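Journal club prep — side note

Before the paper discussion, L.F. wants everyone to see what a predicted structure for a comparable chain looks like in token form. Sequence:
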Amino acid sequence: MFSGRSKKYGDVFKFQIFMNYVIVTNEPDAIREILINKNYPKNEKIYSKIGFPYNERQVEKLNKNLVEFFFLKRFMGLGLVTETNDERWRKRRQIFNPGFHRNVLVKCLGEFNEKTDQLLEKLRKISDGKTEISLFKEINRMTLDIISSVAFGFYIDTINFPENEFSHNITGSFEAVNRCLTDPIFMINPFNYWKKRKYKKYIKDLRNFAKEKILDRLKEIEDNELSAPDDILTAIVTKCREDKIEIESLIDDFITFFNAGQETTANSIAFCFLELGKNTHILPRLREEIDSVLGAKKEVTYEDLTKLEYTECVFKETLRLWPPAPEILRVSTDELCIGGFKIPKNTQINLSPYFSGRNEKYFPNPNEFRPERFLNEVSSYSHFPFSLGPRNCIGRNFAMIESKIFIAKFVQNFDFKLKENQSFKPKLMTTLRPADGTLCFISPRT
């Protein structure tokens, strides 16, 4: 829709929702101004639905039993993604930044490799070229195990035991929020009573699990700080204890990191193999690089990652076509000029990595999968899958390391062929996902 309107009206246009106008732009100077120079806030009405599904934020001061009956539980609350107050957000972001620095994540490469190897071993047992596999489902389990162990120091082995309670609650909670965002009459439909009760339980159980893990780590630090695991959870808990941040806020961030660090990466990797399966002419060059860098090695080092340049281009080209979050929504706090048009204060502005990534002005033949585009520098104001400015994605380095290791090891070990009778279109939830999950058949590489 946006692509067609852009061709007709240019890089800046508007549409109306009831009495409100929404501005859409993919003009690079405007993107820089909105996300970096002015750092406009997120749209509170929309992000409160993710943090507090079904307007629980507005009624949480009412009778608790009334809230429990009519509304879903607090989900991501006021975590890094959903917090719209800039001052509070900055304070929290400063707490988490050190845990996601590249030099910290490099120390965790052993965990990234180990979880990837566990999934490859599972896939090897069914790599007969005949068994249908949903790559998204398998990778989604791996990314859940990675974020659990690397960031929070617990091990659940969803790869081999996908029906565990934690995985079940994660999946169910995300489904609950998606229903909130995509079905406005869901809560008032009496036929959804039992579904609502089930969603409430998913969210309640997930937050209780998070609380238990946080309290366990607090006790571990209090008993012997030196023996506590050196991971993101310890860093968060230690800093928050010093700053006297309440437990519910810690739970918000615990849930946020699983939401932002698991499914989004799994979606992107699944899209990557969907594109590689459709564009098989890309594979020889990709394999040549991986064979040259890794050979028969089983452990991918940081030095190896820096040499996998074309592999990174393949993943970046995937993100250009299929960014995890297709839209970034901000609200102007003052009057702004975009492309000669005056935009009033308090106007919603939509910036779309999906829309910008398919703009032929910046990417010739935009619907073609051409990783070579990224061998040369690409403007960050036309390609911004992890957003830009102060509120860019804190997990960018995490996602890039995780994805490159899996892509390299999978291509190193397997041949694959896509199932022909499947949808190659995206499914829009809170993120973009391959509609059928990238169905394929794999066999040991010859």
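L.F.'s comment for the group: The CA atoms of residues 151 and 232 lie 5 Å apart. Keep this in mind when we get to the figures.
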